[in-house]
Every structure is written in structure tokens, then in C-alpha cells.
Amino acid sequence: MFELAIYLESKRQIVNRYLETCLSGAALPGRLMEAMAYSLMAGGKRLRPILCLAGAEAVGGTAEEALPAAGALEMIHTYSLIHDDLPAMDNDDLRRGKPTCHIAFDEATAILAGDALLTMAFEILSTGNRTHADTLETWLTVVDRIARAAGGRGMVEGQMRDIAAENAELSLDDLARLHALKTGALIQASVCSGALLGGGSTEQIENLEAYARNIGFAFQVKDDVLNVEGDPALLGKNVGTDELRHKSTFPSIMGLEKSKSFAKELIEAAIAALDQFGHRADPLRAIANYIIERKR
Amino acid sequence: MFELAIYLESKRQIVNRYLETCLSGAALPGRLMEAMAYSLMAGGKRLRPILCLAGAEAVGGTAEEALPAAGALEMIHTYSLIHDDLPAMDNDDLRRGKPTCHIAFDEATAILAGDALLTMAFEILSTGNRTHADTLETWLTVVDRIARAAGGRGMVEGQMRDIAAENAELSLDDLARLHALKTGALIQASVCSGALLGGGSTEQIENLEAYARNIGFAFQVKDDVLNVEGDPALLGKNVGTDELRHKSTFPSIMGLEKSKSFAKELIEAAIAALDQFGHRADPLRAIANYIIERKR
């Protein structure tokens, strides 16, 4: 019987240890490194790195092979949160139950800590695990894949659209596209980079892409639901903020109950895409269920 | 007889054409891409990419082999200018004779355009010129080298120290260290990544590191000198700003004339490091002289 809580906790520890090792090598001691560590080690769920490790395991690889990619994905995710929280963007003062980086430090330091985390991600990707020559091509493919997902055709463009969407009425299609860019692309890159590094076949990667697309979508629908009916104490951030900002969300467009059943359908589709993987994909199945059952 | 102006102009055209090709593939059409293009194509000197191409040529390689690295270096340089100009940092409204990115667009867009340019640099580095398997290792080394130079032990840390240095009295050593991080590291990475991709030997790379360290240092001394006695019309930015901000500079610590002769000594040392390279290093020699003779 697969126990998700144990799996998540053991993977979180592996990821946290790895991130701590990276940090000590990636910046000189001082305020910049303090700010990077403050946000990177703030107790995030580590969803993206765990998806990456689970992606490697699903195709018969090991978590070790994918660890640098997992670490890089969490660095990129953290940098994006730091920049998104800035006064010029979402102007949030609370994240994971703690003051956001620009509140705990200052704006300039927060911008630079984000820049340094993004840069560190690519340093880690280029130095990690070069065990044999035949994996070099795969590593370059992974760098490319993660960079595309994070950049101007992915996450950054998604944040642009998210800002533009404040006080705007979005259609369901536009909202779905916004989130596919803002969060979906990096979640997809997480699962797929793990599967690439674990030696997955083209067919396996395609199935995992379908899985990741569906859980990424469901993740955002659930996020919107939590912003309506979540518990701020569990979430570590304020709720009701989307409505305050007149943001189009899945609940605002399709209603709260319909949003919940839609998220459930997406998770069913995600799990269906794992049919061929057998027990090796148990973690990915359990994570899919966790995404809609989570309270934070 | 080597003609620097012709060399620079031909290389600038190659770099500009390459950057334009990259841009069209790296972001979706819209405001984000406009802001990226606005800053990236604003008529910079292209010093870093040209140093990269010249580094490849100095060791007997071709400019083509190093072009993706050259493009990536200019993207990283441009992102750093966009973020440094932000209100939370240097708060500059003029750059290369045009309104800075956050003035021409807005702060959120400028932050995101910088983020997307930094990310695009690594996308370009991972997809560029994979002609044969034996160069993959070199490409990963180049990604690592550039990421280190740009990140928390390089350029970003340099900008942190630059901000902390406002209204502070720095020693000559501290000022030199600040600039070695803020501009020196990336200039060194420019020459060396070109030389690595051009197939340079360890000894050649070491000599080019010495060359680059000296011109990088001289470049900053000259920048400080231009901030005292330069022509705002030629520079495309305001002068006298260092004194206004009570910044420690080479002229403020060692005097204007001493700064000029110091820059000249550094350039002589840079050129001496090129002794073994013969005519292939003529561009690097001419660029060294250009660095202290430039008016902008």
C-alpha cells in the first residue's frame, strides 16, 4: 500500500538537503544569500521538484538522476514567487505564512535574490550529474525544456497576462490559457524533465505530458477554489483576494461547485494517462489526488 | 592593417541579426516581447558578444561557433541594465539616449522583460550549435561559466554591493572587488566562453582570462572617468550622477588623472597577456585600446 505522506516527506527532505547544498555554493555570504535562503527554504510544498523525481521513477529511473533538475525547478518557482509578490506586481506581503521577501528585506534585494535564484537554477542544471557522455544531450534538452517553460513563451508571459487580467473579464479559454502559461508550463517541464533524465521513451514522455497538463490545470482550479473557501491559517496567505482584485477565476466564471467537479474530471484524465506505467506511477497517481484534496 | 571600426561594425551586424532571430522565437507577440526588444535592440555597443566572438577567433575558432554564447551574453547584460535601472535600484530614467524600460513601459513589465531575457539566454545556450557530440561537454561548461559569472557570486552580488556602496566610503580594494563582481565577471566569461567554444587550450584560456580581467577593470575605471568628464550627448546618459549620489569611484579615491593613467596601465597588461596569440588577437588588442579611448 503506497503511503503518499511518507513519500512526500522523504522526497521533501532529499530536495531540501540538496537545495541547502546548492545555496552554500551559489552565492557569497551576505544579505543576498540570506534573502535567497529566506525564500527558498520557507517551507514550500516542493511540488515541482517532487513531480520531477516521481517522473524519473515512473519511467524506471532513479530520483538521484533527476535531483539537479528538481532543485533547479524549485529555484525557478521560488524566484517567480519573489518577483510576483513585488509591489509593482501583485504587492503581496504574506507568503507561506511569512513576510514576503521584499518585506523581510527590501525591494532591491528581493529583485536581485530572484535574479540570483533564476541564474542559480541554470548553473545547477549545467553542472549536475554528468555521469556519462550519452546523458549530455539529455541534459541540454532538459535545460532547453525548462528555459522554454519558464520564459517568454511560458511562465513570464503567464504573469504578464495575469497582471493584465486584473479588473478584466476573461473568457474561460483565456483564463485556461493564462494558467497553462503561468503554472502549467513549469509543472509539465517538471514531470517531463524527470522522465527525460530517467530515460523515458517518447511514448512515455507524451503520456506524462498529458498527465502533467491535466494536474497543472486542476492545480490552478483548486488554487482558485482555495482562494474562495480555504483557511488562511492553513494556506499561510490571505483568502478572498481574487474577488477583492476583481480577478476572473474558475469559480467566478463557472461557479464554485462546477469548479470543484471540473478539477475532479481533470484529475481523472490525468490518472487515465498513467495507465501503462503500473506501480511505478503510484506516486504520480497519489499526487494527482492530493492536488484536489489539499487544504494548502 | 587591422581596422577596428570595420571589425566592430561587421560583428555588431552579425550579433544584431542573431538577436533579432532569437527574439522572434523566444516570446509570444505582445507587450512583454515589445519590452524585451525595446531594450535588447536599443543600440548597445555589443561589447560582451564581440569579445566572445573575438575570443573564439583568437584561438583559431570561428565566430559562428560562439554566436549563441555571444547572443546569450548580450541578453544577460541587457536584463541586468533593465533591473539596475528600476526605481528600487538605481532609479535611472535614461539609458542609451532613450527612456529606460520601466519608463517606456511600466515597472512590472520591465521586471518581467528582464526575467524573460535572462531565461532566454539559457534557452539559447542550450539549443545553439550542437554540431557534434564532443562539443556538448564544452557547451555545458559554457553554460556553467556564464551562470556563475552572472549570479550570486558574480554580477548580481556586484549589484548588491553597488547599492550598499551609495553614501559609503569604500577602500580601493573594496571598489575593485565590487566591479570585478559587477562587470568583470561577465566580461571574463565573454572572452573565455568564446575561447572555449573556439577550441582553446587551457594555457590559452588562462592568458585570455588575464586579458579579460584587465580590460574589465579598465572598462570600469574609464566608466567612472566618463561619469566625471564625459559628454552626455555622446554617452546617451547623464553625467555627474556618481558625485550626486556620493558614490565611491576611482576618480573620487585616486583622483581623475591618476585614474586615467591607471586605466592605461591595465590596458598595457591586458595586451601583454596576448603575446602568444599573434595576428589572430588583433581584434582583442584593438578592443583593449578602444576601451580607454572611447567617448561613450
Folded structure, characterized:
The structure is a homodimer of 296-residue chains. The first copy, chain A, is an all-alpha fold and 296 residues long. Chain A has a single domain (4-293), classed as Farnesyl Diphosphate Synthase. In chain A, 72% of the residues lie in helices and 1% in strands. Chain A has 15 helices and two strands. Chain A has helices at 4-26, 31-40, 47-58, 63-84, 101-104, 107-127, 136-150, 155-164, 172-197, 202-229, 232-235, 241-244, 250-254, 256-272, 282-293; strands at residues 94-95, 98-99. In chain A, strands 1-2 form a two-stranded antiparallel ribbon. In chain A, helix 1 (4-26) packs antiparallel against helix 2 (31-40), helix 3 (47-58) packs antiparallel against helix 4 and helix 9 crosses helix 10. The longest helix of chain A is centred in the last third of the chain and has 28 residues, at 202-229. Chain A is globular, with a radius of gyration of 18 Å. The two termini of chain A are 25 Å apart.
Keywords:
homodimer, 296 residues, mainly alpha, Farnesyl Diphosphate Synthase, 72% helix
Give the SSE map:
The structure is a homodimer of 296-residue chains.
Chain A: H1 4-26, H2 31-40, H3 47-58, H4 63-84, E1 94-95, E2 98-99, H5 101-104, H6 107-127, H7 136-150, H8 155-164, H9 172-197, H10 202-229, H11 232-235, H12 241-244, H13 250-254, H14 256-272, H15 282-293
Antiparallel strand pairs in A: 1-2
Helix pairs in contact in A: 1-2, 1-4, 2-6, 3-4, 3-9, 3-15, 4-6, 4-9, 7-9, 8-9, 9-10, 10-14, 14-15
